[in-house]
Amino acid sequence: MTLLETLKKEKFYAQGVSSVPLYLMACARSGFLMEKELGYGYRFFCHIYNQGYGEILYPVSELDRLWAIIKPKILGEADYLHGIKAKYEKGLVQGESLFNQMQSMNLQLLSDQELFGTFKQCLEAQTATVGLAHAIEPVGFGLDEELKQKLDETIKDKKVINAAYANLTKPSQQSFLSKEQDELEVLLDLQGMELEQAVEDHLNKYYWLLCNYAGLRKITKEHLVERLGVIRPSHKQEIKSEEALFADGLDKEIKNIVKLIDFVTIWQDERKAHILKAIYHLGCVVEELSRRSDMPAELINYLEPTEVLSLNSLEQLQKMSAKLAQRVNGVFFLQLPEGPDCAVGDGYQTALRIYNQVNGGGSSKPASSAIYGAVANTGTAVGPVIICTDLASIDRVKEGNILVASMTRPEYMSAIKKAAAIVTDEGGITCHAAIVARELGIPCVIGTKVATKVFKDGDMVEVKADHGLIRRIN
Length: 474
Description:
Mean pLDDT: 90
Structural class: alpha+beta
Low-confidence stretches: 239-245
Radius of gyration: 22 Å
Number of helices: 23
Shape: globular
Number of strands: 13
């Protein structure tokens, strides 16, 4: 199987975020390792990266194939997913032990050999943070479709289906971002040395919070103090009891689907926290390798996992400098268990053109100014659009803006709390945007496919999330 052959015949579900190959491909690699534990796993992924922005492309055929395998197991064994999660958590132990050691480790004191050994250990730990939890993607999309179908069959009044869907899929537990916000708000009542110590404790607990798939971002006391200066109370929606959720007499089958969605949603949020911690430590090693090799960390971040595992010296790394520099300006990967097929330069442009032709991407803007997506949380909002693709665009979001992105990630949280509504190109019911929107009570429409192409910064739009509608207004 080659990259171009794959792109010509496959449809993909794209997750686009600020990202580089080292971190995102290490996580994707877990999809191959599932086979040993579960008897099934992913066969391939594709990736696009350019100047710190990337997309992991899930083959729709793979998501469908895996859901067809997992669905009867879920239906036949009530605790099937719980069993997978227990195995997943065992797989985290070695990495957590490594990270605890690294908290008191001075990487500058390691020999080159020891540093490369730690680099490989951190990569393996990064892969383990997704691990068997890579089953979440096909399960999340499968359950999402199951719930929509059952609601359509059960609820006669079609006008209330979207509201019921949003209500039933609210998470039953706080996300780690919401918990961190609550803990930070407590500090508002402290002063002097007590505040100083509380800030230090918070920093030690959430040192990884600002990291993302683009690499290491260290949180500082100054950052926390700045947040304390502008923090405002959360406006979380009250979580409904199970009795209230099913007061309208929805059947047992729907109830079971909702419980599974809730379980997967919470698991995905926990997985994200583990991923960010691993990125922090892997990023610290990259930082030290950059210092020793006199290579920018930006270049080292364009390594892919099989290359990391084959590296043993600074000389080997330095010889890759020109190859990595090419990737920064655009690289397309077909990621396979045995290693990737990679395209840069003209090959990258060819791969990108084929991908856009088959999957309807590209830079052309659809003519319609009204688009539809899936309801993640109900409500209506009107405001100017801000298209978010990177950290700089996130900083442009002001109170009352409509945040439009390919997908949202934890680093978008400061912007989300200012936004009047969220609109995304991609995402399923367990995606980050859906979770935080339901948690914070923000209107949200996901899976529009084209929102970032239809709208531009400053466009005044109305988001009618109850109907999954976003339209440009005068």
